[in-house]
Amino acid sequence: MFLKIIIAAVFLLTSAKTAVSAEKVILEKNSLYQYIQVIEDTVKKERYVRNQKKEYTQGGIYVNAPDKLLFEFTQMGFVSLAFMDRDPKDALFVGLGAGAMPKYFTVRYPDAAIDIAEIDSDMAAVAQKYFYFRENERMRVHVEDGRIFVKKTRKKYDWIILDAYQNDSIPFHLTTIEFLKEVKSRLKENGVVVANITSSYRNKFFDSMIMTYKKAFPHFAVFKGKKSANFIFVAAAGNKIKDKDSVEARARKIQSGGKFDIDLEDFASRYELSEAYELGSAKILTDDFAPVNLYQHQKSSSQ
Predict the structure, then answer these.
(1) How many domains does the chain have?
(2) Which of 117, 194, 233, 251 has the fewest CB atoms in 10 Å of its CB?
(3) Whole-prediction pTM value?
(4) Gap between the Cα atoms of 93 and 257, Å rounded
(5) In the prediction, which pLDDT does 142 show?
(6) Does residue 207 lie in a domain region?
């Protein structure tokens, strides 16, 4: 019996050591804007880009299938396509990360023109070297602050994706009502804006984001992650937004086309209107008042 216990203990220690050593760091660096760490899990055959606290993963790939979407939060953003009646022709991504979403999108919509605003040239280089992201004649990276790009461009878009909200360091100027109004002005008549919000629990940041989006877009939809601490906000250029039944029907139609290997129908079933969220005394975020990094650590007054 004693021998069995020793053998079991040795097995557990060995397993723990193997689990720890499965992840190896293949890059660590401080850019002008952030700490960047690239990790590869040699057992799962996955590669990630993480932040300094190692709590938040900006993106990742399957090493043996780099064109598939690894994380739920990148998959879930594509449910927003079900809010449009036709395929998007012009798309803008604010924030690149590992480049998984634009890479996945351009394969499925090769005729679409894609602009990507990424402030950090080092992150763009990491996406290319470690995550197989490649620019092409239809997809360009602009090394520029997302807000400045939105303000300067005269182009209008069918689909705008805001994916620059890191969990440990959120660029406040990309959360304010003034910025959202600028984004709205860059949407085509039937355009849609999508935001990936990381919030592991109801906190003041989440509630203020809901309140701020409501100010810019009277009605918008919220989709909650099941495997991640992410929420997807989807808002339309007009004052109306598709109801749940219409979004689910459109998601089924897109899914049946065979372009997507992710479950758009499941994501569509999570549709909630923003009105479902009690906001208490949440504040609208403005250029003069946006304490977003402080708010992340303060519980919502509606809890």
Answers:
(1) 1
(2) 233
(3) 0.89
(4) 24
(5) 98
(6) yes
